[in-house]
Task: structure prediction
Amino acid sequence: MENQATNAFIATQTALSQASALIVHYGFSTLGAIVLLAGGWILARVISRWAYKGISKIHGIDETLARFFEKALHYGLLILVFVTVLGQFGVQTTSIVATLGAAGLAIGLALQGTLQNIAAGIMLLALRPFRVGEYIEASAVSGKIVEVGLFATQLRTADGLYLLAPNSTLWNTPIINHSREPNRRQELSVAISDDANLRLASKTILDVITDDRRVRSSPAARVYSDELTAEKTTLKIEYWVKTSDWTETRHDLIERMRTALADKEITVA
Result:
């Protein structure tokens, strides 16, 4: 009876000493993990902000793209800190990395179309074939740029409709930017009846064009015969204006040319 009590006491002492050793061991591990998590969180935030400031100073880098790289670096560092913390508790980090890699591959395959849009968005933001406020025309998309995102681009059509275009659609097709160049050429055609004075008609039209201050003097405006039939002669008109004045100048000059030709009694066919 006395031996059993002694054995029980010894077993209790052993269990308590082992428990205290485990508590001390895992207590220090937990404390170290907390310190590592806090330090890693602060360090990831500092490094990502530093990277954002550096990327933002690069000429041509869009704000959205700089923010994307900042977030990607921030969360990547946090994952690295989390894996390191698990290693403090004896977890095999190699299997965790392999699991994360397999999960990333599976997610990449499942979101293949979305990742294509992200990749296209990064290229659009880096190369900047268009900016906010510019009017573009693609294969099946046209309108003024409202916002360029990582997944899609928002546009407003000429008739005021909202249009959302996936970035991969814009990246994989030729884009015509109507607003990028400061100057733009305008072409008009006027059909003059066969019995009219062609030289007078050309001079009248050229005078109307050159009298408009919005028309550029270089390259010089031109008026020339483009098509000849038995009933009419088509005059082609070419001139350069600022891109911002392109539409309004066209409307004004068409009205002035009609009035000037009528004053010279030149019939428009």
